[in-house]
Design brief:
By secondary structure, the protein is mostly beta strands. The protein has one domain: Methylamine Dehydrogenase, Chain H (7 Propeller). β22 and β23 form a beta hairpin. The protein contains no helices and 28 strands. The protein is globular. The two termini are 37 Å apart. The N terminus is likely disordered.
Length: 384
């Protein structure tokens, strides 16, 4: 996921082969599956898990930061670099934005690294996965961290103590994980049967970790997120489709069709708009232009396409006030758009290159990954 790596777009696996990782690409034409119907799973019940006792997050944050928005974006600068570690594939802030988690790996560093963003110092390392960690997410109350891995498990961590509270096992590798806004549900996306190009999203109760729904999809789930209002779950990507499901019953209400695979999806703070990161142009099985597609979630219609990225777009996120859309391509280019017009508001090419992105819940910090395993922290710097 970084500039030093050769970008290979891999043809979809044939039946009987195992699907490559969640960032592999395929450009064989795939028929679009119709709306999917969720099924209740028959996993055995598990005892109610005792959640960790809530505690204050370790550092304290000075309340002098300026929010990243359309009025301030031209004053954004890198102010700290954290690392190094192996390839950074996923980033997440605690709800109070004092701690940043970075995860990924390629050959041996499958740990989750925790950083004090105020001091720029490492806090701890969570060691438990045996494969690439594709996705991480903190619970809305900040007490839990969930991580999804190519080792076929999702681990639920009491991240302060470093203890694994629960391990959820799946038929194959999983790459997407997201807590519902109310914290009562965890969604996991990944492979269900790689030989038959089947994927799924599973949802679990965070009170008991019992399985709630299994929603069928195709190929792999490379993009997944809840809408902030909690009513919609967006997921899919490797099949070139992104489904929009109702969280109340798992019914697919829209299919967002793309020309190529989708690596990330995000929803605006008012839950009206989705943005998906994809590729607009391919030559010799390589992406020559990355793109962000903008969708109206009331109608399921495509309303805009934003291009001119040198490579496929791997991460997309809205600013917390919704005035900006921030996108990063695999080569590391950062493009920021004003959502009023979707005109380009800011452009950067941070050192190292990588497509990982996260914005803090209070909107004052941006984290970007780099090809050498470092993480850059950005903030608004006012210079009178």
């Amino acid at each position: 996921m970084k500039r030093p790596m050769q970008v290979l777009f891999v043809i979809l696996i044939l039946a009987g082969s195992s699907l490559l990782d969640a960032c592999s690409f395929s450009f064989e034409i795939i028929s679009t599956p119709g709306p999917t119907t969720p099924t209740a799973t028959s996993r055995p019940s598990t005892p109610t898990m005792i959640r960790p006792t809530p505690t204050a997050v370790l550092p304290s944050v000075t309340p002098t930061q300026i929010s990243i928005n359309a009025d301030t974006i031209l004053m954004i600068e890198i102010f700290k670099t954290l690392g190094p570690q192996e390839i950074v594939r996923s980033l997440a802030f605690t709800p109070d934005r004092t701690v940043l988690a970075a995860a990924g790996g390629d050959t041996d560093d499958f740990n989750i690294h925790l950083w004090d963003v105020v001091k720029g110092q490492p806090i701890s390392t969570l060691n438990g996965h045996s494969g690439i960690v594709w996705g991480i997410a903190f619970s809305p109350d900040g007490q839990l961290l969930a991580s999804a891995s190519s080792d076929g498990t999702v681990k639920i961590w009491d991240w302060r103590s470093g203890n694994i509270l629960k391990t959820l096992s799946f038929p194959d590798q999983v790459g997407s994980v997201s807590f519902s806004p109310d914290g009562q549900t965890l969604a996991v996306g990944g492979l269900d049967n790689s030989k038959n190009l089947k994927a799924a999203i599973w949802t679990f109760s965070t009170a008991t970790w019992e399985s709630l729904l299994k929603i069928p999809e195709s190929v792999n789930i490379t993009a997944m997120t809840y809408a902030p209002n909690g009513r919609l779950l967006i997921g899919g990507g490797a099949s070139r489709n992104v489904q929009v499901w109702r969280t109340s019953d798992g019914t697919s209400i829209f299919t967002l069709n793309h020309a190529q695979q989708v690596l990330d999806a995000t929803v605006s703070p008012d839950s009206s708009t989705a943005a998906t990161g994809t590729c607009a142009s391919i030559l010799n099985e390589q992406c020559t232009e990355g793109s962000v597609w903008i969708w109206n979630l009331s109608t399921g219609k495509l309303v805009n396409r934003l291009g001119e990225f040198p490579d496929v777009v791997e991460s997309v996120v809205f600013s917390t006030d919704g005035s900006l859309l921030i996108a990063a391509s695999r080569d590391g280019m950062l493009r920021v758009y004003d959502t009023t017009t979707y005109d380009l508001a800011f452009l950067a090419d941070p050192p190292g290159g990588n497509g990982a992105l996260a914005i803090s819940p209070d909107g004052t910090l941006l984290a970007t990954g780099s090809g050498n395993g470092n993480v850059h922290l950005w903030k608004i710097v006012y210079r009178p």
